[in-house]
Design goal:
This protein has 191 residues and is mainly beta. It has helices at residues 2-15, 35-40; strands spanning 22-33, 47-56, 61-83, 86-111, 114-133, 136-157, 160-171, 180-190.
């Protein structure tokens, strides 16, 4: 993990050396679960954030990196959970935490006064499922391949820029990890 963080830091530094060709976006994200994620925790996530940057390598094409975070929480009072030969009863709280790390390929299309963009993020997602029941906690900790397509718009507000986006995150199912799937709606700033 330490090597991964060092490589990520070097790549971020290299991509942002020329600041005038870089766009940064910071958003607050609200996420809606799908598929297995919805089966495990069926509540809208109000806990989310994203930080993305894109470095232009042409007039409209940019390459960058992105990191985001979302947490889904669901409470089930008076529920049962069976694992192996044990049957537990009580209030069950389920969590899905995830942090996608992606390399982004973006196309920007300026339309006066706004700028539209479409992005494909390719990378990995760390994904934790947690089931708390009384004093017991059952935790699954996974890394999986992820795709994150996104569309958005950047528009000027005074001397600043606002960013609105819609991103779908899909962590692919493996033999050990369940599928991760959600749609996030983000609103924030760009510079």
């Amino acid at each position: 993990m330490k090597k991964f963080i060092i490589i990520l830091s070097i790549l971020c530094s290299a991509l942002t050396l020329s600041a005038q060709d870089v766009i940064w976006k910071l958003t607050y994200d609200v996420a809606f679960p799908f598929s297995y994620t919805k089966d495990f925790a069926d509540q809208v996530s109000w806990r989310g954030a994203a930080l993305d940057f894109d470095r232009f390598i042409g007039e409209n094409f940019a390459v960058g990196m992105g990191i985001s975070w979302s947490t889904f929480v669901q409470k089930y009072p008076d529920s049962y959970y069976q694992r192996d030969n044990i049957l537990l009863h009580g209030t069950q709280v389920r969590y899905v935490n995830n942090i996608p790390l992606t390399v982004r390929f973006s196309w920007y299309q300026p339309l006066d006064p706004v700028e539209l963009y479409g992005t494909l993020g390719v990378g990995t997602v760390w994904h934790e499922t947690r089931r708390d029941l009384g004093t017991y906690a059952f935790v699954g900790d996974y890394w999986q391949f992820a795709l994150a397509p996104e569309v958005g718009v950047i528009f000027p507000v005074g001397r600043s820029y606002l960013n609105a986006k819609l991103r779908y995150v899909s962590g692919f199912k493996t033999d050990k990890a369940p599928e991760l799937s959600y749609l996030s709606l983000g609103l924030g700033v760009a510079w």
